[in-house]
């Protein structure tokens, strides 16, 4: 994606990515994916029901380097019977948002397994991942360091580019910051891809 780089070099590519960027939002059921999606879309809390299938919304970045950038965000149902469908949504995606309920410690192993399964797929090995450590407002919510360890992300080889962002989707805390970091990771990946392409041509 994105046009060829001109005289401005790689720095220009930060603002020349073709829009909208394709983002897939995954995670276990009840993690807060749909709440996060509609908080980003409307900047307000919407009472949601479990997603059967998917929701798809176009949102615009409002902060940081991604300000003004369009994202097409696919929020895919997280119930166990729907998880085999994730792969069909993540093909050729620019980035993955994996939402975790930070207070539901009993399901961390399940979340770790599903995230690892997603990232083991060959076409996802270089896809940037933003982990939203959601529901930070709840008693017993675990911090970023705990979530990183619980999901097996402390091994830097686990995911090429990954960032764990504390968040509270109900009030929107951490969402814009996370989206901006994901955008920067996507830019970095695309610059590396273009550089690799140029080297191969030579």
- Separation of termini? 21 Å
Helical stretch tally = 5
pLDDT averaged over residues: 87
**Named CATH topology:** Rossmann fold
Q: What would you call the quaternary organization?
A: single chain
Q: Work out the count of structural domains.
A: 1
Q: Gyration radius, to the nearest Å?
A: 17 Å
Keywords: GTP-binding, Lipoprotein, Magnesium, Metal-binding, Myristate, Nucleotide-binding
GO molecular function, one term: GTPase activity
Function: May play a role in apoptosis. May act as a tumor suppressor.
Protein name: ADP-ribosylation factor-like protein 11
List the helices and strands and how they pair.
Elements: E1 21-27, H1 33-42, E2 54-60, E3 70-76, H2 86-90, E4 95-101, H3 108-120, E5 129-134, H4 144-150, E6 162-166, H5 175-201
Parallel strand pairs: 1-3, 1-4, 4-5, 5-6
Antiparallel strand pairs: 2-3
What does this structure look like?
By secondary structure, the protein is an alpha/beta fold. The protein contains 5 helices and 6 strands; from the N terminus they run βαββαβαβαβα. It has helices at 33-42, 86-90, 108-120, 144-150, 175-201, and strands spanning 21-27, 54-60, 70-76, 95-101, 129-134, 162-166. It has a 6-stranded mixed β-sheet, with helices on both faces.
